[in-house]
Design a protein that fits this description.
Pnp Oxidase, Chain A, seven-stranded antiparallel beta sheet
C-alpha cells in the first residue's frame, strides 16, 4: 500500500502464510511442517420460539462451540517417528494431551500471530503413498483433535 508520495513507508501489509512453525509439546518444539489446515471454530445454532411470540418463526441463539480437527503435513525423515510414537500412547481412553502452538512468523522470525490448541492429541496418522515412478517427497499427515483454540498476537 503506497502513500500519497508513492513510498511504502509506514504501510501495513497482510502477513504471508508461508513462514510458520509448530510446537507439538515438550520434546517436539519447532517441528517443520509443509502445511497446517483446519484452524476453525464454529458455534452450533439453537433455534427457539418463545411461546408468547407473535412471530411464527424461531430466534437463533449461539450454542455449544465446536472446534475442527487440525491437519498437519510434513516430510518423512530417517528414524523420525514422533507422530507414530505419540499416537502409540493411546490406550483405552488415555493419551498424553498436549498444548500445541502454531506460530505465524514475520521476516525476522518473530511471532506475529499464534494459535494455541489446548488438550490436543492425535486422532489419525496417514503415511505417505509409495509409487515406483514418483519423484515427490514422502509426506506424513497427522490429524489432531483439541478442546479449545485461542488466538494471540505477537509483540
Amino acid at each position: 500500500m503506497a502513500v500519497e508520495d508513492g513510498s511504502t513507508e509506514g504501510a501495513v501489509w497482510p502477513m504471508p502464510k508461508f513462514r510458520f512453525e509448530v510446537d507439538l509439546g515438550t520434546d517436539m518444539t519447532g517441528v517443520a511442517f509443509q502445511e497446517v489446515s483446519g484452524m476453525d471454530v464454529e458455534n452450533q445454532i439453537i433455534e427457539y420460539r418463545k411461546s408468547n411470540s407473535p412471530e411464527f418463526s424461531t430466534e437463533k441463539m449461539p450454542g455449544i462451540v465446536k472446534y475442527g480437527n487440525i491437519t498437519m503435513k510434513r516430510g518423512v525423515f530417517v528414524n523420525d517417528n514422533i507422530f507414530w510414537d505419540w499416537h502409540a500412547q493411546i490406550t483405552m481412553n488415555t493419551i498424553e494431551r498436549r498444548t500445541v502452538l502454531i506460530k505465524l512468523l514475520d521476516e525476522g522470525g518473530d511471532v506475529t500471530m499464534q494459535w494455541k490448541l489446548d488438550n490436543a492429541w492425535p486422532t489419525k496418522i496417514s503415511s505417505t503413498d509409495l509409487k515406483s515412478d514418483g519423484n515427490e517427497v514422502a509426506i506424513d499427515t497427522i490429524e489432531i483433535a483439541h478442546e479449545k483454540l485461542t488466538i494471540t498476537n505477537g509483540g
